[in-house]
Design brief:
By secondary structure, the protein is mainly α. The chain contains four helices and no strands.
Length: 141
């Protein structure tokens, strides 16, 4: 008898949870629709705000990057340079895509400039890493 009551309680609890999940799913779908509509409205809005936001993120990234790299211990310099080289290779792919259009435009010039800077960063990183690793070689007598 108690076993049947427990089964019934579990069944009722499962049904209640299923109803709650359905309600949550409906709310999530409603929020997704609202987010899509607000993003469409934001895309159609003035793009001046995007420039200010992008410029702010760029300046903050410069400051944060400077302070993070400045505080790196010498022992971590080589691994950091290896990761920086990997990031630069991803930047080169994006810059090549930006520099790819046939017409001469601002994005093409900036993409070409990004390819040059990323290539300097990659090769400079390899040179610095090689020099750092050379410091750990035993001296030949």
């Amino acid at each position: 008898m108690a076993d049947d009551t427990q089964k019934q309680d579990l069944t009722e609890n499962a049904a209640n949870l299923a109803n709650q999940l359905k309600d949550l799913g409906d709310q999530a779908a409603f929020l997704a629709i609202q987010a899509g509509e607000s993003s469409k409205a934001a895309m159609n809005a003035d793009h001046g705000g995007f420039f200010i936001t992008g410029l702010t993120v760029f300046i903050l990234a410069c400051f944060i990057g400077y302070y993070v790299v400045w505080r790196v211990t010498p022992a971590l310099h080589s691994p950091l340079m290896g990761i920086t080289n990997a990031i630069s290779s991803v930047i080169i792919v994006g810059a090549l895509i930006a520099a790819g259009p046939i017409d001469m435009s601002f994005s093409k010039m900036m993409g070409f400039f990004a390819v040059i800077l990323a290539a300097i960063n990659i090769f400079g990183g390899f040179i610095v890493t090689r020099r750092m690793l050379h410091m750990f070689n035993k001296k030949k007598t």
